[in-house]
Amino acid sequence: MEIYKDKSKSFEERAHDLVSRMTLMERCEQLKFGAPAIERLSVEAYNWWNEGLHGVARAGVGTMFPQAIGLAASFDEELLRTVAEVISIETRAKYNEYSKKGDRDIYKGLTLWSPNINIFRDPRWGRGHETYGEDPYLTSRLGCAFVKGIQGDGEYLRAAACAKHFAVHSGPEALRHEFDAIADPKDMEETYLPAFEALVKEAKVEGVMGAYNRTNGEPCCGSEYLHKKLVEWGFDGYFVSDCWAIKDFHENHHVTATPEESVALALKNGCDVNCGSTYLMVYKAYEDGLITEEEITEAAEHLMRTRMRLGMFDETEFDSLDYTEVESRAHLDVSLEAGRSACVLLKNDGILPLDPEKIGTIGVIGPNAQSQKALMGNYHGTASRYITILEGIQDAFPGRVLFSEGCHLFKDRIEGLALPGDRIAEAQIVAEHSDVVVLCVGLDETLEGEQGDASNTDASGDKLTLQLPEPQRLLVKKVMEIGKPTVIVIVSGSSLNVEAEPNAILQAFYPGSEGGKAVSEILFGKISPSGKLPVTFYKDVHKLPDFTDYSMKYRTYRNERAEDDNVLYPFGYGLSYGDIRVESASVDDLGDELRASVKLVNAGKSASDVLQCYFKSGSKDAVRNHALCGFKKVQLQSGEAKTVEMIIKKSALTVVDSEGRRYLDASAPTALYFGTSQPDELSQKLTGKTCVKVDIKL
After folding, report:
1. CATH fold of 12-324
2. 580-696 belongs to which homologous superfamily?
3. Which burial class, exposed, middle or buried, applies to 5 when counting CB atoms under 10 A from its CB (0-12, 13-18, 19+)?
4. Per CATH, which fold does 336-534 belong to?
5. For residue 214, is it left (φ>0), alpha (ψ between -120 and 50) or beta?
6. Phi, psi (degrees; rounded to nearest 5) at 88
7. pLDDT at residue 90 tops 90
8. Are 403 and 526 in contact (CB under 8 A)?
């Protein structure tokens, strides 16, 4: 019996045997993202490129969850794992069904190129909404949960996750093919690498994707430094280039002169499969003596090992998953739960929740009120039904609902032959005839997203400002002038400043196909909002460091300067309809971990919230302010008091010196802060709550 068919052998042994039976040309061809079949060895054709950022993407119908930044707002590892389990179940079910039809096209495989765990360091970055925000600890925890949900914990992988984009990648989009992101050793270890290390070491992520840019001079898909990091961390999956990134080596980065040289640089530094066309030249690079047969063979073995782990050569427990799994009621319920958790209440003067018995007419106004795109985010699949915000309100409210689009998302008129502002009068009329106005503004994937995908060509998908597009700014101004009680719902993937003072502001991010229902449930108080901002919301983009500056000095909540007075809403902030506070906290030392016992009380309505723990070190190598080191979703009934245990790993309390050495500074005074927000002055002012401080010795 051939070893590669013997299930008693390890996946490594089987992959080695299978590749040894291939010709050299066959091995070369397996390094393409669209790998051909080898019939004599029972190797089916396989396309490595599939996406699953917040649902099965680009391959027809699937349950569509909130965009990743909205999932991050949940601060809920368990929810992320459940969402990822659903995505992988539907991925496997669709793969099974497509395979029966001989359909092995792009976006129909089991290798999902998700999650995106880059750090959202600058609010201008158009792809930031694909990430879990600005904090490396939050990103690592949610990323690990997502990977574990995708891959499962059985003998075979249910699907294979992929950590991207390795590394130091967060715009500008227009420069990504030629840009050199410079980061010093401290920023690398403290900010840019921790999530990747966690996903490799803890979650055993099966794939890693390199970034387009260079990092400290080396192209990320051919970087000796980054490859050594993966080896150091014990990575044993497959490495894939970002799409057409390897041709950038010679065309844009100019670190090589020919495609063959680019092949050699990538392959020698661990790039197993090329999303793109440069690896069509692998055999030519071999003939030219630039790479060896052993290097080609090693890459092919890595790829076959992943396919073995996915059970592509065996019968598995996943073979019975079929199309009935796709968009099942249970899966849609998870999407709804995630949509609820994605919503962050930024302001509320008491108008929310709305009381239907006291309202006769609600005016729903704005370009994102009836927009399906506003629910999606990018890298999305197709839902069979979308519940827009307008529809969610119409379904939930027994009274009259009036609607006006108000304006185009970014153009100065809706009808091409009309004058500018052609829906403003209608919006004002709707407001005049309403008891309460819900004003739905923001962005969608056409304005913030990936270069080439977004129609925002002026910035290649990045944002030039934190303001709303001009037509929406005018709409907000004219509607607010009517003077009716107004709730603004912002639908966007990043920080915006609406420059208005409504009665309430709800940030919904891109809340998924059930998003309109989730928003309406919060507006009418069926549930309490519980989301927290995974990014800082700023007032003015011009007060931020230059977009191309990758130094973390003065960036994100960990290092920003309070004296700049540029923060609108802080990281970790979000209101609820309850009044959950930390009353007291104590900490026990368990060796490598700390066990915190935190007493919470709720003096308001029944609500969920997020218990957050931050540490501040007096070490000379600590971040400027404080850093997240623990979080836990909590639910308290009205009037309830509850003691919650939280485990804090001491590894989360480390600091990093200028040479990139991470250590626990036992000589420095260290304090933990427990609360439902950061321990900063602005959070205290906005919430009316303070964190409980506990001094500890390390």
Report:
1. TIM Barrel (3.20.20)
2. Immunoglobulins (2.60.40.10)
3. middle
4. Rossmann fold (3.40.50)
5. beta
6. -70, -35
7. yes
8. no
